[in-house]
Amino acid sequence: MKEEKDMMCLSLPFAAAVAVGVSLSPSYALAGLIHFALVLCLGIATFRLVPRRLGFYVGLMVLCGLFCGFTGGLQGLTFADSTGAFSNIRSALAGAVDSLDFPSPDTGALVKALALGDRSSLSPELREAFRASGASHILALSGLHLGVFYICLSYLLAPLGKAPVIKKFKSATIIILTAGYVLLSGCSPSIVRAGLFILLRESAGLLHRKISLLRSVLAALMIQLILSPVQITSAGFQLSYLAVAGIAVLYPILRDLWPSEGPAQDRFDIPQKIWRLCCLSISCQVFTAPVAYIRFGSLPKYFLLANLMALPVAGLATGLSMLTVTGSGAGWCPAPLIQLLDSVLSALVWILKTISTM
Question: CA-to-CA distance for 131 and 124, rounded, in angstroms?
Fold first, then answer.
């Protein structure tokens, strides 16, 4: 727990300073002044002219955050600038999906949204159904989608075995393919955050260490802001990190109100699974609600019902969408897969439209 507290004392002041630096009108003079202060602090730390206590490092992180905010604001860097050739691949895959003959008119657009992060073909009616039902996060590529991708990769690589060399090979493969998928999907703030989580998890495994969810959140926050400080102004960035912070902080408290009877019993305990899904939804909503209301001026009434009914279907639809995109890109996509995916997505749309009209 001490490591989490120390990490929090460093990452949160850093993020706050980045926000200040980005929100101000930056100049090279201010950036140069912060740079001079950083060099001075590092010199003080090197020669131990002052005790290196937590307050010193907090001040150091504030200066680093201001410097990142100023320089990031001047350069206007975003992750989307680095996608390059991946955008051509993404367009080709989207075209392959468009060539498939889906029975329902909205299926192709949803497949592109769930697997590629391309929401340009979604109809206004469909967007409103997701928004009004409180399920807009399903359309934003994030931990749900990359989690499905990660699970699929893990199953595909599982037959290779568990030898130490094989484990390192599997971790390296997962990291590389995950990075490729993040670039392919357009590098939205939420998908980058989820990608950093996998990077940290796999890297910790290679070093034979464990990393908690809260430490992953704080470490990913700092890394993402160092790479692209201007993202702190994005609603997707803010909501993504607040949602995961709610899962890390509030979810364990709510979950433990119904004590677990052990992994063997939990596998078949449907009421407890429903309880945990409710706790997950409530934890995310509590942390994201203030920002969502400030940004969009409304809050979903039936978010709990939408998550209970739609999330399991959305997880299945995401996996099938990724499989369909891969098959269509390779030039072979069997009709039964197309029909199954269309049925699952039609069910998802029906659930969300029903909830949105309540």
Answer: 10
